[in-house]
Amino acid sequence: MTGFGHVIKFERIRQNIKQVQLAKDICTPAYLSKIENNLIVPTEELSGQLLKRLNVHQPLPPGIEEENFKHVQQVYFEAIRKKDRKQIEIHLSKILNDQFIFSDRESFFTHHLMVLRLTMLTNDVKYDISTFLKTVSSFSKDFNTYQLFIFYSCLAYFHYYNSEHVSSLHAIEKALHFHDKCAVKEYETADFYYGLGTLYLQNQKLLAAIEYNDNALSYFNKEFLFLRAIESNIIKAVIYKRSGNLNQALESLLIAEKISLHHDSQENLSMIYLNIASILSEKQNIKPAIEYYRKSIEIGSDLKSKLISIYCLVLENSINGDCEEVLKWSKYGIELYKENPLDDLKSMYFHFCCHISKHSGYENFESIVSDSIHHFVTVQDNRHAHKYALLLANYFHTERKYKKASYYFSMANNYLAKKEERKFVEDI
To answer: What are the two backbone dihedrals, phi and then psi, of residue 160, each rounded to the nearest 5 degrees?
Structure first.
């Protein structure tokens, strides 16, 4: 039995409309329920009324429907191969504007899953991914194996973007299970393995991360997908860095830099320079590290990466005792933050404020650092809550204000225990 029941149900759920509301003056809620579950096929007039109320375009002829599905499929395939966000945005805007719907239930769900992944690839906050994902989730019991592979991949990336790393790992491993049970094109596998490697990295599963990332990189190199190869080399460098192999990490980053410069690809250069600087800093090559941080700031367009580079410069100069540079870069960081004060950048603001106070005579030091501790506790960043509590404790100890020093030392120990997930003395 065919019809557009799945379309009506999907749009009703996405728009958060109850069956009673949608059915009013058109049909009974019970009749609508049968339509939505494709148990009956309504008349063209009734179907049209329901779609019109949902503000959905009328269905297209079968030949055009198939043509549209193939078009979206081709956009999806090109997107996961090349990851060209500008092109993805252009195609996605047209797809969403055209509002393709399909009488074939399987094509309809595959279409929406591909659109969901395209939306996530744009990394644009204007799209309500949460609502879209929630709507798609309500139909997951009806998905075939391939659709479950895409669905759990999207769910994993969603959790990853929200820093829910355990949930992202759980979802990506479910996606891997379905990936191994269905026919997937080679470039889909390469893109998936890249994502798998990234999520394994975030969950500290470094051996699995390097294995899957190398498999993806092998395909990207073979197909001359330079942007994807650059991304994979960056991930590879981070994996090596976390495993303590700084030389291999630096080698991967220099390869990424070489590819970027050769193909005039500026998109990732700022991140490459930031990571090179970080490794040089760990190797105690401070002067070249500072130069790479500066290069990262100069060419960077992403505000978050730029602020991270500025903060790293502040730290390096603070270690070197160069108060003038610390103040210069901290004030510049605050200026940039105030131009676009996003919540996920607020931590940088507090870092800069603390360093300005510390390196300019400790003016309002307790108040500023105390506010910073409160912020980091609120965002569950126990590492920096511990760091700044310890900073205050040492400051008051130096000032011979031992009662306050004792209070902040106790606070610092508390956040250290939380950071290291220790509950008992025996855990130390």
So the answer is: -60, -45
CA distance 156 to 175: 8
For residues 152 and 158, give the distance between their C-alpha atoms in angstroms, rounded to a whole number.
10
- Three-state SS string across 79-123, please? HHHHCCHHHHHHHHHHHHHHCCCCCCHHHHHHHHHHHHHHHHHHC
CA angle 69, 74, 76 (to 5 degrees): 95
- The rounded distance, in Å, linking the Cα atoms of 52 and 209 is 48
Between 145-161 and 186-202, two packed helices, what is the crossing angle to 10 degrees? Answer: 40
Return averaged pLDDT per consecutive 10 residues of the chain, 428 residues in all. 78 91 93 90 88 79 79 93 90 82 85 93 78 90 95 95 91 97 95 97 95 97 95 96 95 96 87 94 92 92 90 92 94 95 93 95 93 95 95 95 95 89 54
pLDDT of amino acid 267 = 79
Task: Report d(CA 41, CA 343) in Å as an integer.
Answer: 49
How far is Cα 273 from Cα 262, in angstroms, rounded to an integer?
Answer: 15
Residue 68: per-residue pLDDT: 86
Q: 413 Cβ partners below 8 Å, 6+ apart?
A: none
What are the CA-CA distances from residue 236 to residues 210, 228, 292, 330 (Å)? Answer: 7, 12, 19, 31
Distant-in-sequence, close-in-space partners of 215: CB < 8 Å, separation ≥ 6: 190, 193
Is the Cβ–Cβ distance between 95 and 132 less than 8 Å? no
368, two tokens: 């500023």
- pTM summary value: 0.81
Give how far the C-alpha of residue 189 lies from the chain's centroid of Cα atoms, to the nearest Å.
20
- Residue bearing tokens 């399987």: 106
b or e along 95-109 (b: 16 or more beta carbons within 10 Å of the residue's beta carbon)?
A: beeeebbbbebebbb
